[in-house]
Design brief:
This protein is α+β, with helices and mostly antiparallel strands. A hairpin with a 7-residue loop joins β1 and β2. α3 packs across α5.
């Protein structure tokens, strides 16, 4: 048997459709790897997966976003990126199959998908213009050329050595080309990922250099009785690594504090300011314990945390700029904070300047802000949900009005104003726990920032409300722990909790979704006592 006959017989076990699918997948892989490498020369946020994922976030209805946060938590961004990659893989494989008959058309399909990535890159709020489109364009060109090349190796050639078997194709050439393409793409992707990882080194170094000055106004020590020693209850101070993170950034911005600046301008600003990070460090800093809550937090949900923040009073900066709140005749009623990633968050000027400890925070729990929580500077405003107050990676503050401008979340059907609702949560026992009959400690946390918690009550099944023991209060801007010793009888039971804030308002039983201004209702857990 000749070598040609042997090669042709081997092609029968290596089907052209499978090879075509592989060629499409390799073309897609090469496109992404090239884009990753080119994005290292532009900026990490310009990669096609990031820009397409960001565009998907922007176009996703608020209810779907809320569902993703509820079901995937802080992994929602990973799930989105995996979803984008899955769609890209399916699309690439389909184009590879199509290339068996329509090589040029399939290559055009790759280019069109690159055009989608380029358009998404240019349309992002933080876009740097055409340069952000380069990774998607370069990746698409490489992917299209590779698909044409691999599809050429799959083209049928002359009659088979035994004329009854039909035509053969260049299996050996395809395998060599595919292996070379896979190796080159892997190398480009690894190099691009390494370069993108190193692009934030200056930012990391700038954070490492920071030494937070002692605050002029230090937070008082947390009262000893504010921390209950009960297994299962949330820690009074949430460690940075455990603090919730809910935002739209697929890539955490790494901002160099040495070059960072903040601008304050807009309506009623008689003296605009431009401040560096060192300018803020040289100012009088204050330190406060403040509990933050995400508006996407369901009743009993995890998106609430308490930390010790250090920063500059935002009201003092605004006063230096000549800003007056509306109650004193100021023309601006909305403060729009802009992040380096293009996020816009609108806060009521009256709330920011009413005497509460609204901060431009520089530190969190005794260290410079972690990158994931806004380094170098973020906003913290007690009593307001994060989407109307807690701008991370802030770089611009504009004074305007609610009538003149709708920030990011307001455009997506969330309320313009959103004070935090009075809420409480049972931390222990957990849902569906099986404690032993007898003494069972029921415990958790309650919060009503800037109002304070006055009372927490627990109900077992349909019995009477029993007042829980409150831990000592740190400040009215922090949550309070609570506990109730329950003599648990055997059987299934439902435990329900409600809180009363310092205004005398009892937490409502009425269930409401997180949209448009935060969830409401009583938290309950079902347990079986053995």
């Amino acid at each position: 048997m000749t070598d040609d006959e042997k090669e042709f017989r081997n092609t029968r076990g290596w089907t052209r459709p499978a090879s075509a699918a592989l060629s499409g997948a390799l073309a897609g892989f090469a496109a992404l790897a090239t884009a990753e490498l080119v994005s290292a020369a532009v900026r990490p946020q310009s990669g096609p997966v990031v820009v397409v994922g960001g565009a998907a976030i922007d176009m996703t209805p608020a209810a779907v976003k809320d569902w993703a946060i509820r079901n995937f938590g802080t992994d929602d961004k990973l799930v989105l990126q995996l979803g984008v990659l899955f769609v890209l893989a399916v699309f690439a494989i389909a184009l590879g199959m199509a290339a068996l008959r329509f090589r040029r058309t399939a290559a055009v399909g790759v280019l069109l998908f690159g055009a989608v990535g380029a358009a998404a890159a240019i349309s992002r709020p933080d876009s740097n213009g055409l340069s952000d489109a380069l990774p998607s364009i370069a990746g698409a060109i490489v992917g299209a050329v590779l698909l044409l090349f691999l599809a050429g190796r799959l083209a049928l050639r002359g009659p088979a050595p035994d004329a009854t078997a039909g035509q053969g194709w260049d299996r050996r050439g395809f395998v060599v080309a595919a292996a070379a393409a896979a190796a080159a793409s892997t190398g480009a992707g690894v190099l691009g990922r390494a370069l993108n990882g190193s692009s934030g080194r200056d930012a990391v170094a700038s954070r490492d250099e920071v030494v937070l000055p002692a605050p002029v106004s230090a937070a008082p020590a947390v009262p000893r009785r504010a921390r209950l020693r009960i297994p299962g209850i949330s820690s009074f101070t949430t460690p940075n690594d455990d603090f919730y993170r809910v935002d739209t950034a697929l890539v955490v911005p790494k901002v160099n504090a040495r070059t960072w600046r903040l601008s304050i301008h807009g309506k009623g600003v008689r003296r605009p300011l431009s401040l560096s990070y060192d300018d803020l460090l040289r100012r009088e800093l204050i330190e406060r314990d403040i509990t933050l809550t995400c508006v996407s937090n369901e009743v009993g949900g995890p998106y609430v945390g308490n930390a010790r923040w250090i920063g500059v009073r935002l009201s003092e900066l605004l006063s230096e700029c000549g800003v007056l709140p509306p109650s004193r005749g100021g023309p601006a009623d909305q403060l729009v904070a802009r992040s380096v990633d293009g996020m816009t968050i609108g806060s009521p000027v009256e709330d920011v300047m009413d005497g509460r400890d609204a901060l431009l925070a520089l530190g969190m729990n005794g260290e410079p802000l972690p990158f994931a929580h806004g380094f170098p500077v973020r906003m913290v405003v007690p009593g307001l949900y994060g989407y109307v107050s807690a701008c991370k990676w802030i770089e611009d503050i504009e004074l305007t009005t609610f009538d003149d401008y709708d920030p990011y979340w307001v455009k997506r059907d969330w309320a313009r104003r959103a004070p935090i609702k009075t809420q409480s949560r049972i931390d222990t026992p957990k849902p569906f726990a099986r404690p032993q009959a007898g003494p069972v400690m029921v415990a958790g946390v309650a919060w009503a920032q800037h109002r304070g918690i006055d009372k927490v009550e627990v109900r077992v099944d349909d019995g009477p409300w029993q007042e829980a023991r409150l831990a000592a209060e740190d400040t009215r801007d922090t949550w309070r722990q609570w506990s109730l010793a329950w003599q648990a009888p055997k059987g299934g039971h439902t435990l329900t909790v409600r809180a009363t804030d310092r205004t005398g308002r009892v937490q409502t039983e009425k269930r409401a979704r997180t949209i448009p201004d935060g969830a409401s209702g009583w938290h309950s857990v079902v347990v079986t006592v053995d």
